[in-house]
Design brief:
Blueprint: H1 2-21, H2 26-35, H3 50-55, E1 81-87, E2 97-98, E3 101-102, H4 103-121, E4 125-129, H5 141-154, E5 159-166, E6 176-179, H6 184-203, E7 208-212, E8 215-220, E9 226-228, H7 231-238, E10 242-250, H8 263-283
Parallel strand pairs: 1-4, 1-5, 5-10, 6-7
Antiparallel strand pairs: 2-3, 6-10, 8-9
Helix pairs in contact: 4-8, 5-7, 6-8
The structure holds zinc ion (ZN).
Length: 288
């Protein structure tokens, strides 16, 4: 192909010399402008038009018109991701309850749906769940939360997403929020993951309460700076792991209940959350 292109260049150079001897017609000028400069054909930028392919006797249908580089491009490897999904609470830890629904059960449902969606739609994503039954990882709540993050760290997870549903004293609050760590090594990634998921939930009509940071009342680092209040992001940061808590909506609020009231509603919620996760991984996350 390169030989043909050099031949084409020489051919057109000769034609151009002849053309200089007489005043070119308007359409000739137009023609040479279109085909490009033949004085210095440069590999990679020189593009053959259909006209010179015809002149060379090649069948244009067998040659890519925009050719020029004949080497096969190296395909970009598709990154492999590990996502750990955590269904909040479990066993004796029930979480919130309202109108016959118990948070730990709803968490497990939506978490399982997110796992299912990711597993069936993306070959390059391994998904693990911290629990698949109605039981926690330890009797002690502090141990339980630490072990969920340790599980993710053992799996060398890229992200840990813990699924919960919110509630408020007067059932007056509504909307979604995502609790993140403020620790610098994971802050930016956590915030971006939160934004991706929240934007998806907002697209369903849920109020976006944003990424949420909360300082611990009593735990401080060696510099006296308060650690994260919530255990999942706090332990996640200690493992350099982006670990967030998704409070999809309020399970006790009349505005939000339609978004989580049954399996059909939870399927819609889970799909958007899975898409938010993938949006983060593919568009913002740089795998180490
Ligand atoms: Zn919860």
């Amino acid at each position: 192909m390169r030989k043909l292109r050099l031949s084409a260049a020489l051919f057109f150079f000769a034609v151009a010399l002849c053309a200089c001897a007489k005043k070119p017609k308007d359409n000739e000028i137009d023609y040479y402008t279109k085909v490009g400069s033949y004085a210095e054909p440069t590999e990679g930028v020189y593009e053959a038009g259909e006209k010179d392919l015809e002149l060379l006797g090649e069948n244009p249908s067998t040659v890519k018109p925009s050719g020029g580089v004949t080497t096969t491009p190296t395909p970009t490897p598709v990154p492999h991701y590990v996502v750990v999904i955590d269904a909040g609470h479990g066993g004796s830890q029930t979480g919130a309850s309202y109108d016959g629904r118990v948070e730990k059960d709803v968490n497990l449902k939506v978490a399982s749906m997110v796992k299912e969606y990711l597993s069936t739609h993306y070959e390059n994503v391994d998904v693990y769940m911290t629990r698949t039954e109605d039981k926690g990882l330890a009797k002690d709540v502090a141990d339980d939360l630490r072990m969920r993050v340790e599980f993710a760290a053992e799996k060398q997870a890229d992200i840990l997403v813990s699924f919960h549903f919110n509630s408020s004293d007067k059932h007056s609050r509504n909307g979604s929020m995502v609790c993140i760590s403020k620790q610098p090594q994971v802050r930016e990634g956590s915030e971006q993951l939160a934004k991706c998921i929240l934007a998806r939930l907002a697209s369903l009509g849920l109020k976006n309460n944003g990424p949420y940071l909360r300082d611990s009342n009593d735990m401080k680092d060696e510099n006296g700076v308060a650690l994260d209040y919530y255990a999942i992001p706090r332990h996640g940061a200690a493992h350099n792991l982006i670990a967030v808590i998704v409070e999809s909506c309020y399970m006790d609020n009349k505005t939000d209940i339609p978004y989580m009231k049954d399996d059909a509603a939870l399927t819609v919620l889970a799909e958007q959350e899975a898409l938010g996760i993938m949006e983060f991984l593919t568009q913002y996350y740089v795998k180490q």
